[in-house]
Design a protein that fits this description.
heterodimer, A: four-stranded antiparallel sheet, B: mainly beta, seven-stranded mixed sheet, 11 strands, about 0% helix
């Protein structure tokens, strides 16, 4: 069975600074995908970034990068130059390569960006 | 390009009643998944529909059922509602064929069972 662990219930960061949100995973599958979603208070889950288990380079999408360490089974999200609008819940999830099938989510980390 | 839409946005029901939630997938997507998100938790996978059939199911009782229509839209039905069914219900769509694509979520339906 797949499992996602997010150990930081809440994180605080100053505007314009970088922040790292932790995610560790457990699976016996060789092929899998790792995802990060942002959930503002409105409730919608917004896709941020994807990393396939066979991808050799860390994924990047604008200010978001995924620090993928396969041996340690970690997939941390790094947000550079934080903005006030980044304040939200962030969820790490695991699924198949590509991500079209069942996703398993962690409990999330609440990020607060201070001015 | 229309994203995933869900209706209604909010719903209040009483124990024992039945509810139907609706979802229209993102344009070009053929697969719909449903998730339940209780307060303070991450979403939990309920089931996924593709080609009008349920192809994957999470650990949810038979009170939870669904349907997918030829236009790829989907419904989630919950019978005999319990207080514990109060949650945010999220619909996600994706494209399954050819390796698949990341799931995109709708805004959710907030269900309150009294």
């Amino acid at each position: 069975a797949q499992k996602i662990t997010q150990t930081q219930p809440g994180m605080f960061v100053q505007e314009k600074e970088a922040v790292t949100l932790d995610c560790t995973y457990d699976t016996s599958d060789q092929s899998y995908g790792l995802f990060w979603y942002k959930q503002p208070s409105s409730g919608e889950m917004i896709f941020l970034i994807y990393q396939g288990s066979y991808d050799e380079q860390n994924a990047t999408e604008g200010r978001y990068s995924l620090n993928f360490q396969k041996a340690r089974k970690s997939a941390n999200l790094v947000i550079s130059a934080s903005q006030l609008g980044d304040s939200a819940m962030y969820f790490c999830a695991m699924g198949t390569q590509g991500g079209s099938e069942k996703l398993v989510f962690g409990k999330g980390t609440k990020l607060t960006v201070n001015p | 390009d229309a994203g995933v839409t869900q209706s209604p946005t909010h719903l209040i029901k009483t124990r024992g009643q039945q509810v139907t939630l609706r979802c229209s997938p993102k344009s070009g997507h053929d697969t719909v998944s449903w998730y339940q998100q209780a307060l303070g938790q991450g979403p939990q996978f309920i089931f996924q529909y593709y080609e009008e059939e349920e192809r994957q199911r999470g650990n949810f009782p038979d009170r939870f059922s669904g349907h997918q229509f030829p236009n790829y839209s989907s419904e989630l039905n919950v019978n005999a509602l319990l207080l514990g069914d109060s949650a945010l219900y999220l619909c996600a769509s994706s494209f399954l064929v050819g390796g698949g694509e990341t799931q995109y979520f709708g805004p959710g339906t907030r269900l309150l069972v009294l």
